[in-house]
């Protein structure tokens, strides 16, 4: 489980930023990244941009002398990640931005996780950062990029997967009254283990409880033990264990085979005890690995070698996938094209 210990709270360490411009910029500029919380309070990370090539600006050196970047990953600061701006620090020149790269670097992440997380990667912005105190709201560009980066941009994917992917690169958790989610803060503040609370938060916020008969609408609220998730899904015959002989996921109740899909919770056991919860992005049936979203310190993409961990000689693990019900859609054919209306 992702426990809050000194060794497991992985704070952001540095950032890299690269801007491609439509016109030639000045050779040296001072700008800021602004992180704004749900109350409108801001944390500002200032830096110098230098011209490194034609129509190219990069951060010369990012020095977090005030530790403001690390503060973003500390308790009750999580909501600052949800609104990110690029700001002009009273400079007299504008920047005509074509594309941007923005990467958050973490010193340490979970095994198999990506510690250099691209929140923007040659992402087309096509906006001008005005002179003086002008700003560009980056969050919509970041979310669009992250969905593409995770491979769930086109087609239908479960809302759990989409909502979690938009939090990639962020780190931290907040208690009640420290974010906009009322009685369901993201992800409940200082508790012993966060992985199951992390997964259950997305299940609750996307209304997954509606697909479970005779369960209250709070069934996925504040789950702090991975075994609780297993109990809920198994009671509905929606749990599938990995069968290392068949190389398939098999229903624990019916014996039916199942192909995991994006959004499904993935649970890990060791020595018969539930250890960790993750959100599945992709099952690779050829290599017998999964790509998952792990969090919240930080929220990152992680590769889990299911078959190897199940069959190795020492410290074997067991994996169980929990099936989320697919949202239904209707299709209407009009003038040769198919228009799909997703039911919410």
Overview of the structural elements:
The chain is mainly beta and 344 residues long. The protein has two domains: 12-163, Lipoxygenase-1; 195-322, endopeptidase fold (from Nostoc punctiforme). Helix content is 14%, strand content 37%. The protein contains six helices and 18 strands. It has helices at 68-71, 139-149, 159-165, 195-205, 226-235, 306-311, and strands at 12-21, 28-36, 42-53, 56-59, 83-88, 95-106, 116-129, 135-137, 239-243, 248-251, 257-258, 265-270, 273-284, 289-294, 300-304, 317-322, 329-334, 337-342. The relative contact order is 0.14.
What is the CATH C level class of the largest domain, in words? Mainly Beta
Read across the widest sheet, the strand sequence of neighbours is 7-6-1-4-3-2-5-8
In CATH, the topology of the largest domain is named Lipoxygenase-1
Would you tell me the structural class of the helices and strands?
mainly beta
Q: How many separate structural domains?
A: 2
**Rg value:** 22 Å
Biggest sheet record:
8 strands, antiparallel
- Return residue spans where pLDDT drops below 50 for at least 5 consecutive residues: 1-8, 328-344
Beta-strand percentage?
35-45%
Shape: elongated
The number of strands is 18
Q: Mean pLDDT, nearest integer?
A: 88
Distance between the termini: 32 Å
The helix/strand series, from N terminus to C terminus, equals: EEEEHEEEEHHHHEEEEEEEHEEE
Helix percentage: 10-25%
Q: If classified by CATH, what would the architecture of the largest domain be? A: Sandwich
Question: So how many helices?
Answer: 6
